[in-house]
Structure formats: C-alpha cells, structure tokens
Design a protein that fits this description.
Blueprint lengths: L3 E5 L2 E5 L5 H7 L19 H10 L8 E7 L2 E12 L2 E8 L8 H16 L4 E6 L4 H9 L3 E11 L11 E10 L13
Parallel strand pairs: 5-6
Antiparallel strand pairs: 1-2, 2-3, 3-4, 4-5, 6-8, 7-8
Protein name: GNAT family N-acetyltransferase
InterPro entries: Acyl_CoA_acyltransferase (IPR016181), GNAT_dom (IPR000182), Ribosomal_N-acetyltransferase (IPR051908)
Keywords: Plasmid
Length: 190
C-alpha cells in the first residue's frame, strides 16, 4: 500500500514503517500521555520500542497501520487505521504536544477519512472518544463525524498493568459514512 497525501500548509502524510522509528522517538520525547502505537500505549519511545511498535502496524498484513503527518521531514503526529470488519475501520490520532491546537489534527483526520473511503473502500470509519476529551469531540463534529452511541466503561485508562486493577471510562462512538462528505472549513485552527 502506498500513500503520499498532501494536506496543505506544507503538511504531507505517508504510511509509517519500521524505518520511521527514529521519527517516532523524536516526536514522542516530550509526551507524557499515552501515545498511539503498540499493544500498550506509552509516553516517550526508546528506539527499539519504536521499531517493535511500528512493526506491529503493518499494512501489508491487512491489519492496522499508521499514517505519519510530516512537515519538512519532522513527524508532527499520526493517524492510525484499524480495520474491524468488512468496509469498517476505527481511526485514532495523535499530535505531538507542542503542535496541538494548530489545526493539524483536523486537517489530518479530514484528509485521511476521505482517503480511506476512496482508496480503501471503507464505508464506515469511527472514532472512540473519551467524553472528557472536549478537543476531540469538537474535532469530530468539525470534520463531519456524527455521534452514534455511548459505550459505558468501555475504554481502558492504562493506569495499571493488570486489566482487573485498571480504571475504565465510557467511550463515545462517532462515525463517518462514505456518503457524507462535507468540506473542512479553511479557517479551522484547532
């Protein structure tokens, strides 16, 4: 699978691979919250951990993969796509801390949503959002996603290694269907 998608403002997207491990290490060096990659989200990545995480996100295996959002060779964030059934995918996104609230996530989610609808024939793309995550809720609305349902105590906090001792919170499911294609406003900067 190949992707070289221009997002405007000097941003472009490409599918991340193990060869991009150094970019992931540099991008997460200031992260304190869980990041997108691997079976267990973590903050900053060591080089070997980044290689291992990115090797699990392999589009050649017809599974989940990660699309890096770059400007001038610097990884600013990523969008993950995780197939969960015929023509259905979950999307997750992450932006490095110092680049948040600049419209990058909106641009990336908008562009990758339509790319996935067209290039991957994904009829349904969905986001799983913590109800307390106001920026993600606003982003979902802004780029044309629609609220579908609330799943009680569905998402893990990752505050403990053992699932039985961990905290769980509700998740809101927001969907984008391929026949819904509103344009993203040019003035968006969140």
């Amino acid at each position: 699978m190949d992707l070289d998608l221009s997002l405007g403002d000097g941003l472009h997207a490409h599918i991340l691979s193990v060869d991009d491990a150094a970019l992931l290490v540099e991008a997460t060096h200031r992260e304190t919250a869980p990041s997108l990659w691997a079976a267990r989200p973590v903050g900053p990545y060591a080089f070997q951990d980044a290689q291992a995480a990115l090797s699990l996100w392999d589009p050649a295996a017809q599974g989940q993969f990660s699309i890096g959002i770059l400007r001038e060779g610097r990884l600013l964030g990523a969008v993950g796509l995780m197939p969960d059934g015929p023509r259905s995918m979950e999307m997750a996104y992450w932006i490095r801390p110092e680049e948040r609230r600049r419209g990058i996530a909106s641009q990336a989610v908008h562009a990758v949503t339509f790319w996935a609808h067209n290039a991957l024939d994904a009829a349904r793309i969905w986001l799983e959002i913590n109800p307390r995550n106001e920026p993600s809720l606003h982003l979902a609305q802004r780029v044309g996603y629609h609220f579908e349902q609330r799943l009680p105590r569905h998402c893990r906090e990752w505050s403990a290694e053992n699932t039985e001792h961990d905290s769980w919170h509700d998740c809101l499911i927001w969907i984008h269907l391929s026949e819904r294609a509103p344009a993203l406003p040019d003035h968006d900067h969140s």
